[in-house]
Design goal:
With 247 residues, the protein is α+β, with helices and mostly antiparallel strands. It is 28% helix and 29% strand.
Length: 247
């Protein structure tokens, strides 16, 4: 039994709350257990200079962790002059994940920036950010369609992400910080609603893991992301965008 009393294939309690930021074109507060991430999508009426004349739009992401998102205060990265390597890697991952399910030409030559700010961290911040960022992006596109800025929905599919790991020799789903910090193997899976793999990140912290263990983690991740996509659909189906969807 895990310390959280969850079964090995159980997610933490996950909620998606839409329209939480008054001024953003799309927003979502996502929680995975004690991890909380605020995702906001902001429209810019021009794309990056290197795409000028291409007829294509662009989606990019920025990720940050608030100073007291963890047990001890961490220094704001803006004060150090540039984001850390970890931050750059995560925000590139979020951007890639969203672009993988978006028809960029359908956006026109515009850019959407999705900001993912970690309010509280207890493991799985990047996977929570991707799952919530998709909802914020969806609502940004809905905002654009309602104002005839675009005529079709650029989103081709859902995308969600979840962590898995091998803890005390057992594959488990959706690691919290205590599990992640002691895992022999930890991995992150980004998977579309139709089951396509966008990205797989896996690291052996102790001994190398086997192909069989990797496949066991993939099975857990597919089950977990299927539930997350169902939760995204539940959140979007609610008439009032300011209500929570909970799993």
């Amino acid at each position: 039994m895990r310390s959280s009393k969850r079964a090995n294939d159980d997610l933490r309690t996950v909620t998606l709350e839409r329209a939480v930021a008054r001024y953003a074109e799309g927003s979502c507060l996502v929680t995975f257990g004690e991890t909380r991430v605020l995702c906001t999508a902001s429209l810019e009426e021009r794309g990056p200079p290197w795409l000028r004349g291409s007829g294509k739009g662009w989606i990019t992401a920025e990720y940050s962790m608030l100073p007291r998102a963890t047990h001890e205060r961490t220094r704001r990265e803006v004060n150090s002059g540039k984001p850390s390597g970890r931050t750059q890697e995560i925000q590139r991952l979020i951007g890639r994940s969203l672009r993988a399910v978006t028809n960029l030409p359908a956006m026109g030559e515009r850019q959407i920036t999705v900001d993912c700010d970690v309010i509280q961290a207890d493991g799985g911040t990047r996977t929570a950010a991707i799952t919530g960022a998709w909802v914020a992006l969806h609502d940004c596109f809905s905002w654009m369609r309602a104002r005839s800025i675009i005529s079709v929905d650029p989103l081709r599919d859902h995308v969600a992400a979840v962590s898995c790991g091998i803890v005390k020799g057992v594959p488990v789903l959706d690691l919290d910080y205590a599990e992640d910090s002691g895992a022999e193997t930890d991995a992150n899976f980004v998977i579309t609603g139709s089951g396509g793999l966008v990205e797989v990140q896996g690291t052996a912290e102790g001994k190398p893991f086997s192909e069989e263990e990797l496949l066991a983690l993939l099975r857990l991740a597919k089950g977990g992301t299927e539930r997350l996509v169902a939760l995204q659909k539940q959140a979007l189906a609610q008439a009032a965008p300011d209500k929570k969807a909970t799993a």
